[in-house]
Design goal:
The protein has two domains: about 90 residues, Phosphorylase Kinase, domain 1 (2-Layer Sandwich); about 180 residues, Aminoglycoside phosphotransferase (APH), C-terminal lobe (Aminoglycoside 3'-phosphotransferase, Chain: A, domain 2, Alpha-Beta Complex), CATH 3.90.1200.10. Helix content is about 45%, strand content about 20%. The protein has nine helices and twelve strands. The strands form three sheets. Strands 1, 2, 3, 4, 5 and 6 form a six-stranded antiparallel beta sheet that branches. It starts with a helix and ends with a helix. InterPro entries: Aminoglycoside_PTrfase, Kinase-like_dom_sf. Keywords: Kinase, Transferase.
């Protein structure tokens, strides 16, 4: 894709420099720079139904005070344009340092998630219906004998919890999506996987990536003390859901030989092995 050409023709932006950024697991991105501005051009597949709704959520949260790397409307007033059979958006570049594993960074992750879920709260939905987002992985759950029983067990346990609190979710709250800016403010970027769902799923994702729960959960509950009982009761269950998503996703990638965002097939195998290890299998 001619990123500079897309910026000129669709957004009326004339970059002085464009560089390819490390691709996401399901996307491609370019950093574009000129005097006075920096933006990220992001491209995803035409069938990515969450992309545009995630961009609209990023605008809503940014308006509420959570820095998100919001999208810029195109010349036609659209957040998403179609180019070469793909969806393309232009996002404000968020300067800063990715958060890491130290307690202050993990606490910042919990704090920002608490702000997000407060600003984008929803009425409770049906967990069993929400878990249908695992369906695209269904035909690949027999790639290894342990995957289907682990996934189905995690789903059954989540449904058995009954009604839980919902919000708009980031969907993949890894530390690399959080950036501490020069002013100390922490942003949460990359909203292409946003979805409606149980708050516990986002908290579980953050804990999974952090490798520990104490600092993430404590900071989250300072923002959302009303959820203390729910998190105590349901976090372990939704950690298993998060591992189930990882297992299904990497089984799907392996089955389809999807290599975007990674160095080679071994990285997909590692992702699946990590999920198995988390299940204790």
């Amino acid at each position: 894709m001619d990123a500079a050409g897309v910026l000129r023709e669709r957004w009326d932006l004339k970059p002085a420099r464009v560089q390819v950024l490390a691709g996401g697991m399901n996307s491609a991105a370019w950093l574009a720079v000129a005097d006075g501005w920096r933006v990220v051009l992001k491209s995803v597949g035409a069938d990515d139904t969450a992309f545009e709704s995630g961009l609209r959520l990023a605008v809503r949260l940014d308006d509420a005070g959570v820095r998100t790397g919001r999208p810029r409307p195109s010349k036609r007033g659209r957040f998403v344009e179609r180019v070469e059979g793909r969806q393309v958006a232009v996002l404000e570049y968020v300067d800063g340092v990715e958060l890491g594993e130290d307690p202050a960074d993990q606490a910042a992750i919990g704090d920002v998630l608490g702000r997000v879920h407060s600003a984008a709260a929803l009425g409770s939905g049906v967990t069993a219906d929400w878990l249908r987002f695992l369906m695209p992985f269904e035909e690949h759950l027999d790639l290894e004998p342990w995957i289907r029983p682990a996934v189905e067990g995690a789903v059954a346990d989540a449904v058995a919890l009954g009604p839980v609190s919902w919000a708009w979710l980031h969907g993949d709250a890894a530390a690399e999506a959080f950036r501490r800016g020069p002013d100390g403010e922490v942003a949460l970027i990359d909203w292409g996987g946003a979805m409606r769902g149980p708050i516990l799923y986002d908290v579980a994702s953050a804990v999974m990536y952090a490798g520990a729960r104490d600092h993430v959960v404590s900071a989250y509950l300072r923002r959302r003390p009303d959820l203390a009982d729910e998190i105590e009761l349901g976090l372990d269950t939704f950690l298993r859901v998060r591992w189930a998503v990882q297992a299904g996703y990497f089984a799907w990638r392996i089955g389809n030989n999807v290599l975007t965002g990674i160095a080679g097939p071994a990285d997909n195998l590692k992702g699946l092995a990590d999920a198995r290890r988390c299940f204790g299998l």
